[in-house]
Design a protein that fits this description.
This protein has about 425 residues and is α/β, with parallel strands linked by helices. It is about 45% helix and about 15% strand. The protein has 18 helices and 15 strands. The termini are far apart. Bound molecules: nicotinamide-adenine-dinucleotide.
């Protein structure tokens, strides 16, 4: 078996981590049990470009139980859990091409190794694999039945490709499923971003002035959790509706130009670029901390920060770089501006990835069943899958809900009854 990982001897620790996460992924486990009998992916090659975490390992095990030949590569150079990668290779015979801290050329070499696996279904978190299949590896795109996209930034890239008429095969916007982003982006990113920042800095959140850029699903989740820990939260937005929502949720809302003078900790969660730039670094207080939890490391203008600095002290603490500006002001950049929750913590808790990856696994089955009907476009996850995943999750939490009565069904479908 071909693979490229950091250290195979870490496998035992990785296996413990995978099985621990599995305890908190009951929906995926139920699907795995069903897949091991029905084999919906029998003999199909599948490549996944995802964060190599314990939760992803359980998705890979599920796809394999369904009969697929699975290969994995990383969707971010800093998010690979090397012990998990070792266990996947050693204990589950799943080839992995990912090393934590890999440079850009190794990162792309690994994506290309996942393409060499000749997949018919792909999974992406940020669309780097699909992008490769549309550019340097165009010839390998012809065998793809469909691809799945896990994050907001990836879906934006794919919709742009579809609108420009460049998309070459169907993709499923798994991120846009309510059973994914309502929970994963909000509660998963919310909690794990706080976790990553605390692990990196050991700061007390209570009383800290925290500036949250972007009040989308991730931003809302993080703002809510930071406030819950006693932080004084300020939100910046470009969308008037989201800004209004943040204001009515009780947060201070203001432009970054103003917030940059007040904040002590800045976190970007926008999916946009250069949200914090030179003029903002200039305005910040001494010892301001800047982190990103959006998909790419472009939300903070790091080249501008470098230009403003007379000295950079790398790793003054793990995941913390100290930039000393020409004015002698210090700014601390966490995890080189990459996803702080994955770089400094463990990403989303398994409980929440259970829903995202259950949606992914059921969607893979759906793709096989509907392959001749799927047009080349960006598709939503069918509501039927979303409902099944949500029902299974409720069941696992021993939560029951009501059923519509026959009278209620009729009432909701009619327009006759009024005041
Ligand atoms: N850290 C993680 O584990 C994780 C998990 C899920 C998603 N993501 C990523 O986080 C990012 C946000 O995802 P989301 O689902 O919240 O997206 P979203 O579209 O729901 O929210 C993004 C928000 O940012 C706002 N925004 C855009 N440009 C801005 C700017 N210059 N200043 C202030 N606000 C701005 C938008 O108006 C929007 O409200 C994406 O890159 C996504 O891929 C990260």
């Amino acid at each position: 078996m071909n693979f490229d990982i950091a250290d195979l001897s870490l496998a035992a620790q990785g296996k413990r981590r995978i099985l621990w996460a599995d305890n908190d992924m009951p929906v995926l486990a139920a699907i795995r049990k069903r897949f091991s009998k029905s084999k919906p992916l029998k003999g199909k090659n599948v490549s996944a470009c995802l964060h190599i975490t314990a939760e992803t390992a359980n998705l890979a095990r599920t796809l394999k139980a369904g009969g697929a030949n699975v290969a994995l590569c990383a969707s971010n150079p800093l998010s690979t859990q090397d012990d998990v990668a070792a266990s996947l290779v050693n204990d589950f015979a799943i080839p992995v091409f990912a090393i934590c801290g890999e440079n850009r050329s190794v990162y792309y070499r690994h994506i290309n190794a996942a393409i060499d696996h000749k997949p018919v279904i792909t999974f992406d978190d940020g669309a780097d694999l699909v992008n490769e299949l549309h550019t340097r590896r165009k010839k390998d795109g012809h065998r793809i039945i469909a691809s799945m996209e896990e994050t907001t930034t990836g879906v934006i890239r794919l919709r742009a490709m579809a609108n420009a008429g460049l998309l070459k095969f169907p993709v499923i916007a798994v991120n846009d499923a309510a059973s994914k982003h309502l929970f994963d982006n909000r509660y998963g990113t919310g909690q794990s971003t706080v976790d990553g920042i605390i692990r990196a800095t050991d700061f007390l959140m209570a009383g800290k002035k925290v500036v949250v850029a972007g009040y989308g699903w991730c931003g809302r989740g993080f703002a809510m959790r930071a406030r819950g820990m006693g932080a004084i939260v300020i939100v910046t937005e470009i969308d008037p509706i989201k800004a209004l929502e943040a204001a009515m949720d009780g947060f201070d809302v203001m432009p970054m130009a103003h917030a940059s003078k007040i904040g002590e900790l800045f976190v970007t969660l926008t999916g946009n670029k250069n949200v914090i730039r030179a003029e903002h670094f200039h305005a910040m207080k001494d010892r301001a901390v800047v982190a990103n939890s959006g998909h790419f490391n472009v939300e903070i203008d790091i080249p501008a920060l470098k230009k403003l600095s007379r000295k950079v002290n790398r790793n003054v603490r793990s995941h913390v770089d100290e930039y000393i500006l020409k004015s002698n002001k210090r700014i601390y950049l966490l995890a080189e501006g990459r996803l702080i929750n994955l770089a400094a913590a463990e990403g989303h808790p398994a409980c929440v990835m259970d829903m995202s990856f259950a949606t992914q696994a059921m969607e893979a089955e759906y793709i096989m069943e509907n392959q001749t009907k799927l047009e080349i476009a960006v598709h939503d996850v069918p509501m039927e899958i979303e409902q099944r995943v949500s029902r299974l999750k409720l069941q696992s939490m021993s939560i029951g809900i009501d059923k519509l009565t026959a009278e209620q069904i009729e009432y909701l479908a009619s327009s006759g009854e009024g005041t």
